[in-house]
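Run Threonine synthase through structure prediction, thanks.
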Amino acid sequence: MRYVSTRGGAPELGFRDVLLAGLARDGGLYVPAEWPSFSADEIRALRGLTYPDLAIRLLTPFVAGEIEEAAFAAIVREAYATFRHDAVCPLVQTAPNEFVLELFHGPTLAFKDVAMQLLARLMDHVLAERGQRATIAGATSGDTGGAAIDAFAGRDRTDIFILFPHGKVSPVQQRQMTTSTATNVHAIAVEGNFDDCQDLVKGMFNHHAFRDGVHLSGVNSINWARIMAQIVYYFSSAVSLGAPDRPVSFTVPTGNFGDIFAAYAAKRMGLPVERLVIATNDNDILARTLATGTYETRGVVETTSPSMDIQVSSNFERLLFEAYGRDAESVVRLMQSLRQSGSFTIAHGPLQAIRAEFDAGRSSMEETAATIRSVLAGSGYLLDPHTATAIKVAREKADASTPMIVLSTAHPAKFPAAVEAASGITPALPAWLGDLMERSENYTVLPSDPKMLEDHISRRSRAARERSGS
Ligand SMILES: Cc1ncc(COP(=O)(O)O)c(C=O)c1O
Ligand SMILES: N[C@@H](CCOP(=O)(O)O)C(=O)O
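Sure, done. The structure for Threonine synthase is below.
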């Protein structure tokens, strides 16, 4: 499998190089040169497989020829052995024809663990094979950071720098990033919002001298391997409800558009999916874009679902590339317009193509709180605010004949204040995180300044290289 950039100006790469590259050198995002395809019979044959076996079967076409078969199988099995549920990503029914896909049984209680546990092991494998070290930079609105730190902590081929918006993540999320004792972990609180953090990370990737000097690599969903890993649970959940003989729809709480793009990828690979529903909080840029055809950034609003407090939704670029018939020049024009004016308008044909697959809706903070209460009253099930956002939208968009699978992207205990305010219940952290709020913190506060950030990272990663002698 080869991978191409959405902006057409970077070399085609194989899986290992895409994994280490993160962002393409032309500023674009890598996608597979063609989508692997699974027939109805091949999808039927997935029934009854364990989650790791399903992952091995579905992901092999993306890594074939680059990661040796037995090594890949061992990496996948080890990654999902870190999950605390036998099914890894179980489905729970919350209403007739409504199912919640629980993605929070990994080490940091967020869906990010599903991809990150695999990504860290794959990177380690490739770096060891090449005798290299890498500096990893990631931006987080709260969950990617904790998941990445858990997955990379203590790995001696990587130094990881996670940028989070100072004071804008939940206390549990912050502690998951700032209490690691591993010497290769560096948490940075940026004076800004998530979009500022993401801009800083992309800026470092686009500064090629810096990028090459520190061997920069990325763990955000701009890295194709993140999306790839997230494809698996769309298949596992749909197959358990009867796919390919019974189509399903998905509602996905959406911020950076990585998770729902993985759903789109699953559909392109042959999974029968009726509707893909984007659920947003008050930061509703994607819902507005689908309604008007114009993608227009506004200021970020702080909400009770902070991980979705995002305006610049990076992976939407991957969808635009597909909707424009893989015409990279059009993508470059749209991205230039976004940079210059903070907006772009999607042409009629591509917009129709997007609307043919996707719906979108939003949930205000009040509606999200009301949904937490009503689902608790109706089925005794306690939602986190991100999942509640999605349930609210799913219930507006569902049709009676198609099962609606709603992605539950975080455990309620990550957001105890919002859950308690809505429901009166304070969800407890699981035993292995029981002392999280007592652990001591270690992080650096920096302004949203590219030069200061690069200096900070260069200094620390040089020291680590000297210590390791590489
Ligand atoms: C809990 C939670 N839900 C939903 C999202 C949105 O996912 P995506 O950015 O892939 O759209 C995030 C962050 O990305 C998250 O942390
Ligand atoms: N909500 C995310 C934002 C970053 O998204 P990513 O999927 O691109 O890593 C977070 O929790 O950090």
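Residues 110, 143, 221, 253-259, 307-308, 386, 409-410 surround pyridoxal-5'-phosphate (ligand 1) (CB under 6 Å).
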